[in-house]
Q: What sequence folds into this?
């Protein structure tokens, strides 16, 4: 069974509205030093699992954070909105992972120093999604 992170990355790379903005620049946990804006970084920020009595149910509901980096505030918001429209309320196949539901949870704006932009800053939208999915139990 595929890892959720692999499925999420594959799914995002299939979304035309996102690919039109970032191409294939989606990275796990940390972008490479030579990454060019705009891009997305994803990471698991929590990972809970449903249990039934004394057994494992095979249902996981981690929270994944997708951070949308861009050269301007407006571009970061546009990218985050494209991600939200592609992910929120999705169910079914997600790059080989059976997803029961994707639920938008929270969004926070951020900025950090970035020598590659004219302003010297990168604008970021961190968005959290709870992803209910099936996982292996043995």
A:
């Amino acid at each position: 069974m595929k890892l959720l992170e692999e499925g999420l990355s594959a799914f995002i790379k299939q979304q035309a509205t996102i690919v039109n903005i970032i191409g294939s620049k989606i990275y796990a946990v940390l972008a490479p030093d030579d990454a060019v804006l705009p891009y997305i970084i994803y990471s698991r920020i929590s990972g809970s699992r449903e249990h039934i009595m004394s057994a494992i149910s095979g249902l996981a509901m981690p929270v994944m954070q997708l951070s949308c980096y861009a050269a301007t505030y407006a571009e970061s918001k546009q990218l985050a909105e494209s991600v939200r429209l592609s992910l929120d309320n999705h169910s079914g196949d997600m790059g080989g992972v059976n997803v029961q539901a994707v639920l938008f949870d929270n969004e926070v704006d951020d900025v950090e120093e970035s020598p590659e932009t004219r302003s010297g800053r990168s604008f970021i939208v961190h968005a959290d999604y709870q992803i209910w999915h099936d996982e292996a139990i043995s």
The beta strands are 26-28, 39-46, 49-52, 55-60, 63-70, 92-94, 97-113, 121-134.
